[in-house]
């Protein structure tokens, strides 16, 4: 029997589905550390949550390993080249957690613009005074929101904030089709122009060598002093030191980060003393209801591997490193997961 190894703690709602769909068909093992993983190098399918899978770990996997499936979308913690060279497909849950991330993004925008943490601490202290906070509170309506990355998440954020009356611009190295821009009501801008003109800059691209520290001190200096930066993508896209300096110097209205370099930060980190910074613990991609969709999507891909078809094409992220695969689905050979226009 082929073996599914769950690496990391998968939420109960999703775990239940994984077990139900594996029952009688695959052996299932769960591991919570690399030490435990070393006992299951004979797995066929690996489901990875919150665990890095570098070249060293991939090298050790046995010859039966066929698929590493991320519980999520970002694949920066997996060495996709090392996996490809070993003939192992790396798949992501493409588009499956876009809605939760988009909703959290909007929540962070609203919480920052209205100073939610401060309002709550006033209420908890039994205080009625709020005029000073209101004097620093702003609507999304009428503001210019600049999205960096107009993929699955970026498009949902565009629709949501557009619906609230924001003017939406975006930058993406792969410009969307004119009909998509029209349908979403978004305007393309070069990155520099977007940074200079946005009231809210929201990041929705992958962490790649080319996007690491894309938002550095120079990029932050281009933003309006009244602007808000939101990062629900990956911490490494923003130079944290430069951002904290800009926030401390009140060079920006504020920032809201679901993702930050070296997360989770220690409780005594200076970031937590800034009153213009909201931090959430990388919670964007998971909600109880959506976790079921994540598990079902992964099991569909595993079943597709078993039947010889291969995972849904848009979910595969290391096609360029894979040799000739014995997969019969012709689509698999035409489309690549990194094709930006496939959603
Ligand atoms: N906070 C969370 O829990 C959470 C959850 C899911 C995804 N994410 C992160 O969000 C990212 C985006 O997810 P998605 O589902 O929208 O992915 P996606 O692949 O659908 O879209 C990413 C978009 O970014 C664009 N892009 C690539 N390089 C760029 C650059 N230099 N500048 C601007 N745009 C660029 C791509 O062309 C694409 O349109 C993921 O890679 C992941 O790291 C975070
Ligand atoms: O890339 C994603 O989809 C999410 O950022 C990632 O999956 C979140 O990490 P988790 O808490 O699910 O391990």
UniProtKB/TrEMBL annotation:
Gene Ontology MF annotations: 4-phosphoerythronate dehydrogenase activity
Recorded superkingdom: Bacteria
Alphabetized Pfam families for the sequence: 2-Hacid_dh (PF00389), 2-Hacid_dh_C (PF02826)
NAD among keywords: yes
Keyword Nucleotide-binding tagged: no
InterPro entries xrefs: D-2-hydroxyacid_DH (IPR050857), D-isomer_2_OHA_DH_cat_dom (IPR006139), D-isomer_DH_CS (IPR029753), D-isomer_DH_NAD-bd (IPR006140), NAD(P)-bd_dom_sf (IPR036291)
Residue ranges constituting the D-isomer specific 2-hydroxyacid dehydrogenase catalytic domain according to the UniProt record: 4-318
D-isomer specific 2-hydroxyacid dehydrogenase NAD-binding domain mapped to chain residues: 106-284
Alphabetical keyword list: NAD, Oxidoreductase
Family membership: Belongs to the D-isomer specific 2-hydroxyacid dehydrogenase family.
Official protein name in the record: 4-phosphoerythronate dehydrogenase
Taxonomic source organism: Pyramidobacter piscolens W5455
Name of the coding gene: pdxB
């Amino acid at each position: 029997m082929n073996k599914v190894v769950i690496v990391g703690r998968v939420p109960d709602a999703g775990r239940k589905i994984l077990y139900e769909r594996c029952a009688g068909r695959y052996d299932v093992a769960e591991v919570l550390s690399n030490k435990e993983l070393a006992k299951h190098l004979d797995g066929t399918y690996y489901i990875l949550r919150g665990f890095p899978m570098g070249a060293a770990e991939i090298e050790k996997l046995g010859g039966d390993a066929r698929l590493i499936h991320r519980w999520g979308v970002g694949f920066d913690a997996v060495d996709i080249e090392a996996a490809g060279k070993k003939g192992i497909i790396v798949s992501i849950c493409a588009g499956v957690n876009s809605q939760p991330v988009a909703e959290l993004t909007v929540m962070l925008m609203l919480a920052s613009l209205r100073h939610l943490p401060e309002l709550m601490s006033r209420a908890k202290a039994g205080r009625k005074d709020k005029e000073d906070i209101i004097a620093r509170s702003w609507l999304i309506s009428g503001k210019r929101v600049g999205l960096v990355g107009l993929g699955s998440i970026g498009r949902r954020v565009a629709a949501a904030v557009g619906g609230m009356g924001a003017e939406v611009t975006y930058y993406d190295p792969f410009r969307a089709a004119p009909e998509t821009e029209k349908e979403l009501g978004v305007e393309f801008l070069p990155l520099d122009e977007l940074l200079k003109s946005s009231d809210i800059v929201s990041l929705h691209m992958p962490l790649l060598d080319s996007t690491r520290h894309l938002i550095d001190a120079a990029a932050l200096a281009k933003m309006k002093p009244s602007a808000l930066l939101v990062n629900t993508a990956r911490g490494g896209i923003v130079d944290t030191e430069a951002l904290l300096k800009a926030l401390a110097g009140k060079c920006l209205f504020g920032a809201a980060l679901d993702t930050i370099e070296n997360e989770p930060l220690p409780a005594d980190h200076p970031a937590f003393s800034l009153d213009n910074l909201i931090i959430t613990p990388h919670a964007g991609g998971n909600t109880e209801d959506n976790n079921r969709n994540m598990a079902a999507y992964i099991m569909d891909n595993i079943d597709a591997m078993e039947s010889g078809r291969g995972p849904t094409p848009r979910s595969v992220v290391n096609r360029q490193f894979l040799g000739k695969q014995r997969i019969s689905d012709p689509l698999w050979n035409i489309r690549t997961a990194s094709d930006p226009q496939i959603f």
